Amino acid sequence: MNAIIKILPGDRIIRLQLLMIVIVLALFSLTLGGRFFSAGNFQSIATQLPVLGLLALGMGLTMLTGGINLSIIASANACSLLMGAIIVAHPGQPLFLLLALIAGALLAVLIGTLNGLLIAVIGVSPILATLGTMTLIAGLNILLSNGAVISGFPPLIQFLGNGEVFGVPFALLLFLLVAFALWVLLEQTTLGRSIYLLGSNEQATRFSGINTARVQITVYIFSALLSWGAALLMMSMFNSAKAGYGESWLLVTILASVLGGVNPDGGFGRVIGMVLALIVLQMLESGLNLLGVSSYLTMALWGGVLILFIALQNRRT
C-alpha cells in the first residue's frame, strides 16, 4: 500500500480522484464485467464527456473567483438557437455558417459581459445575478423559438460532436485542447494569478493594484464562451437546437467543480482536478445506466454527494 501511495501524485485531491477511478472500475468490473469494459461503452463516455466538460470548466472558472454562473445552460441554448436559426435559414452557404458561429460567440460575450457588470460594477451577488440572467435568457429562448426544435445542420457541424480522428472522438480532442488552454491561462499567466488572488481575498487584491472588476468581467465572458463551445457540441450531437436541452446538467457542473477540488469560496482549484472529477462522474453515470438505475435516482445521488462533500469541506475548515 505504501508503494502505491508513493507512486500517486502529491496533490491530495488528485490522489483521491485517481483512487475513486480505480474503485469505480473495480466495482463495475464485478457487477457488469464486459458490458462496462466494452469499446462501445467507453466510446459513449468519451462522446458525452466533452459537452458536460466545457460547461463544468465554465462553472469552475467562475467559482475560482468566489462566484458562480447559473446561466451557463441557458446561455448555451441561446447560442445554439441563434446559430441554428441562421444556419437553417441559409442552408448550404459557408458564409452564413461562419456568420452563425460569430453571432453565437458575440451573444456569449454579451451574456458574459452582462453577468460581469452586474457582479463587478453594480455589486449584485453572483448567485442572484446569474439566477436572474438564467431566468431571463431561458424565458427569451422559449419565447423567441416558441419551444420549437431547430434541426438539420450541415456535415461540418455534425462532425464536431460525432466525428473521429484516428478512432478518437473529435469532441474529446477539442475538450482536452480547451482544458489545456485553460490550464495555461490559470497557471502561467498574470490573469490566472489574478483570478486566484481575487478568489482568495478580493479586497486585498484590489489594494494590490489589480483591477478586480476587469478580472471578474473577463472571467464571466470566458465562462459564457465555454457555454458557446458546449452549444456547438450540443448542436452536433443532437443535430438540433432547443430551449430546454441540458437543464439537468447544471447540478452536475457544480458537482464536477467541487469534486474537482474547486473551493466554493474561491481561491483554489485546478483544471486537472475538474477533468478527473468529470471522468469519475461519467463512468458512474454510465455504469448506473447499464445497471438500469433510474436517471432521477442518479440525479438524487449527485445532489446527496454534493451536500456531503461540501459538509465535509466545511467541517475541515
From TrEMBL:
It is a multi-pass membrane protein. Keywords: Cell inner membrane, Cell membrane, Membrane, Transmembrane, Transmembrane helix, Transport. Its main location: membrane. The chain crosses the membrane at residues 12-33, 45-64, 71-89, 95-120, 127-153, 165-186, 217-238, 244-262, 267-284, 290-312. One of its GO terms (cellular component) is plasma membrane. It comes from the Bacteria. It is found in: Cell inner membrane. CDD domains: TM_PBP1_transp_AraH_like (cd06579). Belongs to the binding-protein-dependent transport system permease family. AraH/RbsC subfamily. PANTHER family: ABC TRANSPORTER PERMEASE PROTEIN YPHD-RELATED, ABC TRANSPORTER PERMEASE PROTEIN YPHD-RELATED-RELATED. This is Ribose ABC transporter, permease. It comes from Erwinia billingiae (strain Eb661).
